[in-house]
Amino acid sequence: MSLILSLDTSTTACSVALHRSNSPTSGALLGCYELFTERTSSAMLTTLISDVISQAGYKLAQLDAIAVAKGPGSYTGLRIGVSTAKGLCFALDKPLLAINTLTAMAEQIRSYFSTEHLLCPMIDARRMEVYCALYDTAGREVQKTSAKIIDEQSFGNWLEQKPVVFFGDGAAKCRAIIGTHPNAIFPDVNILPSARTVGQLALSAFTQSQFENIATFEPFYLKDFMAIPSKKTLF
């Protein structure tokens, strides 16, 4: 049996989940706390961790691994999530697992679509840019994670071949531009990153010993951090 704590702070949504696996092929969600706010809720991360573990009847020392959504996403959110996960790993002497945020998003909905569909999770990257990737409904990545500026030609080749499901907080800007294409599907449900599916994928990664080097691991920022100039003046 393995007990895995998972964290996702890729966006302003902050979530923590606890999973237990009884075999290499099955696992159970023991608890999950999620916060959805306009501003980052990562400041509540340590409280959520304490609550989900204690409510499930466990202690930190009983964990077998810590998993974290590695990105892409918010620079600040990822930095907080990864720093917290690494701190726990060092303190508890536990291994670190890292899951692509977009892969975990695709995991949320892939069972609802047929094999003819492709899934395109999107995270808002400001202006007309999104972080995105393409997956088939078996969870395989068919187009690598990238930062893409959306225009009328975006995903044109894929849309000519198959229906593509666009979702996540970056999908709205895409819908306004390519939403009229007959193969472009935009679910009405708002799908955000969640530690629930980070934990599901982490269970499999744990059985395969896909551990990160805790000392050198860095979030998958995808692009360099760009600070927003302050509007304050000196005089």
UniProtKB/TrEMBL annotation:
Keywords: Acyltransferase, Iron, Metal-binding, Transferase, tRNA processing. It comes from the Bacteria. GO terms for molecular function: tRNA N(6)-L-threonylcarbamoyladenine synthase activity. SUPFAM superfamilies: Actin-like ATPase domain. It is an enzyme of class 2 (transferase). Its EC number is 2.3.1.234. InterPro entries: ATPase_NBD (IPR043129), Gcp-like_dom (IPR000905), KAE1/TsaD (IPR017861), T6A_TsaB (IPR022496). Pfam families: TsaD. It catalyses: L-threonylcarbamoyladenylate + adenosine(37) in tRNA = N(6)-L-threonylcarbamoyladenosine(37) in tRNA + AMP + H(+). Signal peptide: none annotated. Residues 38-152 form the Gcp-like domain. This is N(6)-L-threonylcarbamoyladenine synthase. It comes from Spirosoma flavum. The gene is tsaB.
